[in-house]
Structures are given as structure tokens and as C-alpha cells.
Design goal:
homodimer; 236 residues; alpha+beta; Jelly Rolls; Arc Repressor Mutant, subunit A; four-stranded antiparallel sheet; 11 strands; 46% helix; DNA-binding
Chain lengths: 236, 236
DNA sequence: CGACTGCTTGATGTTGCTCAACGTGCGTGG
DNA sequence: CCACGCACGTTGAGCAACATCAAGCAGTCG
């Protein structure tokens, strides 16, 4: 079914030249380069829950998330782990495509998401011939690495309650820019994102609810006492 | 004192052209580019324990670790955390220099280490004008990111005993290529590297000793039962 | 010798995981 | 239509893993 949708979408002629949602790197491309890109780029729409890329599969494409929200997850030696939530616009698979040939993680849409698959060789060619493009890609990777570092550090030092607080604030500020939002993931996912159990997540959320820090109605979250939440997030 | 040594070293004429320890990226540079590099590159020797770069300081240099062993550490909101141990040859500060202007972490030599400081603008220029160089840098960053991912994942899911086992195996295989080696860091550092307490580290090491998995004499480690150690590392 | 650092060991309290039970909504198949 | 399995969510009880606190020991340096 996903494959069918993929087929349909590929049929559409994608125009990169007139794409309104170019990445910073793509903005540096010249007209003739954009033509090349256009011929080696497939745009696909994924619905919430669809698997975008699969761990351990061969990868010959770079993935550009044009719109939407995606979770990056890894099947670890012990259990599933969600590494991070990323929102458009961003590239994925740069490390996988260049470093190894197989994907080191899976990506799943947690909201409807539109994605461009770009042939890795074309991508390499751009890096090779367009210094501006290369620089933008390196900047993008740098930003990603620093974000990883931060997330890693947080997770490693805080106790469960602090991590959940962190995640709630992350969704409110980084993703939805609002103190009222609909959580796009299940409690299980929330647990995997923070390396704790489903039960623990549940307990902490009800605690927050009882302490009047959060209003919770199913997946609908309202931040009632942001100051306290922030304090919990920092103190761990 | 460190500054003095820095001064002395800077006086030495560094010849990048004839450097035997070029990075994969530097190998792609043409003769004239190497001349530019030579004029914007300072080589410094750091002794064990010396601080190479400091968190929150302004950074206008890319750091190339030519020989030696370095720990990357961050002063987190809660306590000090050692992110990773890296050995030569490798670049540091790529994310810091390009993304932000300030260092996001400190680096300290844990063995005598020789380092080249390279002006970030020269570096950028190479990326701009030499596609091969840019590609190599991107490959390097990709490798780093995957390594980070792995370390992050391991640490997040395993319990203390598995992390220590992991670290021991890391030193044996990645760093010293021997089952007998001298630990280059204190128990405190070992603890910070794995996000556990000094006491916990101590206890686990003596456990390993009692179970005849490791021979321990101060900082001298001998792996006696590698199969079991590996099993502990995997099972967590 | 005394102060200090790095390391070890034991006792105690807390965190958070495991297990088990139960309610709910959703899709499938009889 | 209902019965059933299945994923999700919540709650409680018990227990293992860890951190914390406290004390002690060996080696080093002034």
C-alpha cells in the first residue's frame, strides 16, 4: 500500500526549480544544477505512522524532509530506542549514505510528511562542484551534531521526571510553539524517547497532572505551570 | 605555563607539505593549498592532563589531533560528563567552529598529544574550492555521528556493569589493541564517562576482579575472560 | 609527620523497573 | 451484531539496581 502510494507520487513531475521549500543548501544551486536535481529526485507523501526509511536496508538516497514531523528510532541490542524527533526542513541519512551504505536507523512519520528522495551520487556531485552547497551541508550536520550532544547529555544525567519535563517543553517550544498541543506520539513512544518504561511515563504524567503542572486529556497537553516545569527540567 | 609552551611551539616552523600524518582530507590538498595551510596552522604538543580547548571559550580554529589520546567532556547542568575518548588522527571542533562560535565542550589530553590548530577561514576556503576536501570532511563527520549514536544508545540502555564492560573492551580493542593495558584515566573519569558514580565504578571493577574476568593492579588492566566480558557488554 | 588525593568498602535510602491486574477503544472475523 | 484479540493507558505492590553517606586505607608530597 505504501509502495503503491510511492509509485503514484513518483509519477508526478517534481519541479525543484520552483519548489518553495528549498533547503539552505539547495538555495545555492544554479539553474542547471537544479535541473539535474529535478531528474534525480522523487517526492513522496507519507501519512502519520508510515515508515519512511528502514534500519538495515540499503540506502542509495539522501532524504530531505520538506514538511512534517518524523521520529528517528533504532532497534538497539536491548530494545527499541527513539533517538530524536525532527521537524522539517532537514536532511536525513547523510551519515548513513556517505559513511555506510546501510541505514543505521529507521524513520517514521508521526505527522503527515512530504519527503524528497535524492540520489546520493547527485548529492555528492553537488558537494564536489559547488563549494557553497558543501558548506551549507556541513553547517547542517554541525547543527545536528550539537543537538544530538545536548539530547544525549540531558538524558544521561537527569532522572525520569526531568526527562519527561524536557520532552514536554521540547514539543511546546521547538515543535508547536504553543503551550497547548496534541502529543503526536503514544506513551510507549514517549517512554522509548527517554529510555524509561511505559508505566513510568504514565505515572509521571499523572503526577504532573495532580500537581497542576500540566492539564492532560488523552494526548492533549496544556502547560499550566511552565516555570515549575522548567525548573524540574533543569534540576533533573 | 601552557601558554609558554604554546609560544615555544608556535615558533617552530611547521611543514604541512612533508607532514607524515596528514588527514584523509589534507591528502586531497594541492601543493599551493598546503602552502596556505602551512601559514595558518600552529602545531602544539600537550602533555597528559593539559587542557586543549575549553568549553564556552571562543573558537576560531579547527583542531586536528595528530597523535595522542583526548577526552571530550562537557560541564552539564548537573555535573561533569565525559562524552567520549578519541584517538588520533581526527578533527575536533568542526561543529563548534562552523555552527556556533563558542566551543560546546572541553578537550583534555589524557596522553601526550600533538595538535594542529587550523584557522577556520582557511578551512572554509578549502571546502569552498576543493570538492574532494569537502567530501572527506563530510565523511569524517558522518563517521563521528554514527559513533556518537552508538555510544549514546549503549549508554542509555545498558546498566552499569554493561557500560563498564563496554568501556574496558573499547580501550582494549579501539585504543590499545591489546588485552593488557594501562588505563589512562582515573576511576572518577571512568565513572563520568559512563554516567555513574565513582563508588559504583570501583565496586564493579572489584567484582570483575573477583570473578576472574579482569586482572587489576592499580590502573593496569588485564582481560582474563574476554568471552564473558563481551557477553556482559552485550546483555547489558 | 600531617594533609591530601585517589581508591575501596559497607550501610542505608531512593528511584525506577518488573509483574500483574484491569479498563478502553479499535479492527477482524465469525 | 457480538466475540475476540490486540495495542494503549493506568494503577498498585514488591524488588533490584544505584546513589548517597560515612568511614577507612594506601600512597604522595610538602
Amino acid at each position: 500500500m505504501i509502495l503503491l502510494r510511492l509509485e503514484e507520487q513518483n509519477m508526478e513531475k517534481v519541479s525543484c526549480k520552483f519548489c518553495k521549500l528549498k533547503s539552505a543548501a539547495a538555495l545555492t544551486l544554479k539553474n542547471n544544477e537544479l535541473s539535474v536535481l529535478e531528474n534525480n529526485c522523487a517526492q513522496v507523501i507519507f501519512l502519520k505512522g508510515d515508515n519512511i526509511i528502514r534500519q538495515d536496508a540499503l540506502s542509495t538516497n539522501v532524504v530531505y524532509i520538506k514538511t512534517g514531523l518524523v521520529k528517528i528510532h533504532i532497534k538497539g541490542p536491548i530494545k527499541e530506542r527513539i533517538m530524536k524527533i525532527v521537524k522539517a526542513p532537514t536532511y536525513l541519512c547523510l551519515p548513513s549514505s556517505f559513511g555506510a551504505k546501510i541505514n543505521h536507523f529507521s524513520a517514521t512519520a508521526i505527522e503527515d510528511t512530504s519527503v524528497c528522495f535524492i540520489d546520493v551520487n547527485v548529492f555528492k556531485q553537488f558537494i564536489y562542484t559547488n563549494g557553497d552547497f558543501a558548506l551549507q551541508i556541513i553547517l547542517d550536520m554541525s547543527r545536528g551534531e550539537l543537538q544530538n550532544l545536548h539530547h544525549c547529555l540531558n538524558n544521561a544525567q537527569k532522572q525520569n521526571i526531568g526527562r519527561i519535563a524536557d520532552t514536554i517543553l521540547f514539543f511546546a517550544h521547538e515543535i508547536y510553539n504553543s503551550n497547548i498541543f496534541e502529543l503526536p506520539i503514544s506513551r510507549q513512544d514517549l517512554a522509548d524517547l527517554n529510555g524509561i518504561t511505559r508505566e513510568g511515563t504514565s505515572r509521571i504524567l499523572t503526577d504532573f497532572h495532580n500537581e497542576k503542572i500540566l492539564g492532560i486529556n488523552g494526548r492533549k497537553i496544556t502547560i499550566l505551570n511552565e516555570a515549575l516545569l522548567r525548573q524540574i527540567s533543569v534540576k533533573g
